[in-house]
Amino acid sequence: xxxxxxDAQDRIHDGLEDGALKGAxxxxxxxxxxxxxxxxxxxxxxxxxxxxxxSTIVAATVVSVGIARAGVADGVVGNExxxxxISLVLGLLFIxxxxxxxxxxxxxxxxx
Length: 112
Description:
It is a single chain. This protein has 112 residues and is an all-alpha fold. Helix content is 71%, strand content 0%. It has four helices and no strands. It has helices spanning 2-18, 37-70, 72-79, 81-100. Helix 3 (72-79) crosses helix 4 (81-100).
């Protein structure tokens, strides 16, 4: 079993050295002139992004329904309301800080 694993690792390593896996992904190779492929690549990226967004929404809905049916928040709020409030504020703070990662970096003039 380990021999097969080492053989697979060697093939991947050899492919990386030869540049065979360099063009993996949605983008076309740099030396290839793009024509109709540009639209296909954009469509594939759009479909992948949409599928990821829909699956994230479905997962969040399932988790929310599961928490609501379990009644976990009732037990926490009833006994330790202050701890729940602090954790809620910290959670919202972390979400807000994470939102800053979506902002584009500021433009600074380059010094030459």
